[in-house]
Amino acid sequence: MTESSSTKGTKSWFWLGLLSSWTCFLLFFTQFIGFLIWGGALFVLIHRKSSLRWNLLAFSPWLLVPLLSMTFATANYFQGEASLKYTGMPSQEFYNLDPESRSWKQTSGCLIIGYEFFTHSPNNVMVKLWTHLLGPQRGIYQGIYPDKRETEELLATQASSLIFKKGIKGSTFQLNGKTFLIEEYQYHPQEDLSLDKIAHVLFLNKELIIFKALDQKSFPITYLIDYKSGKIFARYRDDPAGPNF
Questions:
Q1: What rounded mean pLDDT belongs to the chain?
Q2: Has residue 191 got a pLDDT over 90?
Q3: DSSP letter string over 215-242?
Q4: Which one in 29, 64, 218, 226 has a CA-CA gap of 20 to 30 Å to 14?
Q5: Is 147 helix (H, G, I), strand (E, B) or coil?
Q6: Cα–Cα distance, 94 to 108 (Å, whole number)
Q7: HSE-CB for 177 with a 13 A CA cutoff
């Protein structure tokens, strides 16, 4: 075999491995086949000591997609827009701010494509890593965050009853001459609230507002609100044994 034909054969193995890896990566039911072909091509390139082996590693989806996911997660973290990514149908409380990483959550839905391990997992690792190293991202609520049981106990022992008004952008109520506006967040609309009703309201350390309307049409929902921004960051539904969708 001449040097020219050997070089041509090496390049053929490179393109076979690269193209098959991307084709099978996008067609999720053939990913294992694509990985085997890619691995075989990589073995040949390593055996031939070809510099193309590094290109096959760097530009394959098995490495490039996770690296891109980690890069975007890092950029989003420093912009205050990072979120944890999951799969499956979201429950009523799924979109609550994550108590540990103080990040929002997203789901790509019930249909699992197959490459989520290479997109979601690296994203979540980086979001949690930056949060561990530098703290919660900017613009995110960082105050007291009681769980459902603690919230119920606080409302039962310390809450005040106030009249609120339900408007287009949210609900308003007054306390000590000050008007408070509870704004709805994208995933936290104030559902089943009539226009003028009574709610149990509790303030904690000028960080947290706990709000629960007493007359809701379906299952009562308790809202946790950022005192400074007035935005809802969590909701607890009172029917733990009932439907959550």
A1: 79
A2: no
A3: -BSSS-EEEEEETTT-BEEEEEES-TTS
A4: 29
A5: coil
A6: 13
A7: 0
pTM: 0.71
Q: Which residue shows structure tokens 């709610």? A: 199
Distance CA 213, CA 205 (A): 21
Joined together, the tokens standing for residue 35 give 């990985």
User: Both ends of the chain: CA-CA distance in Å?
Assistant: 65
HSE value, Cβ hemisphere, 13 Å, CA-based, for 61: 23
What is the pLDDT averaged over residues 187-201?
A: 63
User: For residue 104, how many other CB atoms are within 10 A of its CB?
Assistant: 20
Q: How many C-alpha atoms does 121 have within 13 Å on its Cβ side? A: 9
**Residue 51, amino acid:** S
Q: What six digits make up the tokens of 240? A: 């733990």
Short-list 82, 180, 168, 62, CA closest to 125: 82
Query: According to DSSP H, which parts of 27-79 are helical?
Result: 31-47, 52-58, 61-78
Instruction: Please state, in angstroms and as integers, the Cα–Cα distance from residue 163 to each residue in 20, 55, 153, 179, 245, following that order.
Output: 64, 66, 21, 12, 29
Q: What is the mean pLDDT of residues 194-198?
A: 63
Written as one letter, the residue type at 3 is E
Model confidence at 241, pLDDT cuts 50, 70, 90, reads very low
Say how far apart CA 32 and CA 232 lie, in whole Å: 43
Q: How many helices (H) and strands (E) does the chain have?
A: 6, 9
Mean pLDDT of 192-216: 76
